[in-house]
C-alpha cells in the first residue's frame, strides 16, 4: 500500500484489504472476494509420517516446521490463528522455522530442510513431484482473496474492467485451472 502507483489491489487475505480500506486507498463499493484457497500442511515427498490432526505436529517426527512470518504474511496469519485455536502455537515455537513468505516455506519443504510446513494448496500442487500434502488445515476464517480498484488509479475504466474480468466466468476458469475455488 506504499510504493509504486497501482490500479487494482488484490490480497491473499481480508486483513490486508481491511487495512487498505481503513486507509481509504480503495474505491468505495469496488471490493469483492474473487477466490478461495486452502491452507495445508505439506511435507517432503519422501516423508513417511502422517498428520491426522494439528496435534500430530507435536510428534518427534516433526522437528522443524516452516511457517511464514505471521506479522507480514497472510499464510502465516492463517497458520498462527489455526495453531492458536488448537492451543498449539506456544508449544510448537521451538520447532517453528519462520520464513519470509509461502514460497520460501515451500522451498524448504521441497529440499527437505524442514519436516513439514504450512502453505497454500495452490502452491503445494505446483511442486507435486517434491512435496506432498499431509492435511488440510481448519482455519478460523476462510482463506479468501479480495480485490478492489485503487482510489489513486489513473486508469479507472481499465481497472474496473480488469476486476470484472477476474470475477467473470472466464476469469474464474483461469483461477480454477490453478487450483483456486470460486468465492
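-> sequence recovered:
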Amino acid at each position: 500500500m506504499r510504493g509504486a502507483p497501482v490500479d487494482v489491489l488484490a490480497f491473499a487475505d481480508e486483513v490486508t484489504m481491511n487495512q487498505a480500506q481503513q486507509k481509504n486507498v480503495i474505491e468505495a463499493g469496488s471490493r469483492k472476494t474473487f477466490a478461495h484457497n486452502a491452507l495445508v500442511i505439506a511435507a517432503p515427498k519422501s516423508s513417511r509420517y502422517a498428520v491426522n490432526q494439528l496435534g500430530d505436529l507435536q510428534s518427534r517426527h516433526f522437528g522443524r516446521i516452516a511457517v511464514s512470518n505471521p506479522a507480514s504474511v497472510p499464510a502465516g496469519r492463517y497458520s498462527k490463528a489455526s495453531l492458536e485455536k488448537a492451543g498449539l502455537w506456544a508449544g510448537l515455537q521451538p520447532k517453528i522455522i519462520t520464513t519470509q513468505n509461502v514460497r520460501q516455506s515451500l522451498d524448504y519443504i521441497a529440499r527437505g530442510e524442514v519436516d513439514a510446513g504450512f502453505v497454500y494448496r495452490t502452491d503445494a500442487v505446483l511442486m507435486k513431484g517434491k512435496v506432498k500434502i499431509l492435511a488440510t488445515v481448519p482455519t478460523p476464517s476462510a482463506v479468501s482473496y479480495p480485490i478492489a480498484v485503487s482510489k489513486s488509479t489513473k486508469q479507472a475504466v481499465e481497472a474496473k474492467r480488469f476486476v470484472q474480468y477476474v470475477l467473470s466466468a472466464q476469469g474464474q476458469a483461469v483461477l480454477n485451472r490453478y487450483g483456486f475455488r470460486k468465492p
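The radius of gyration is 18 Å.
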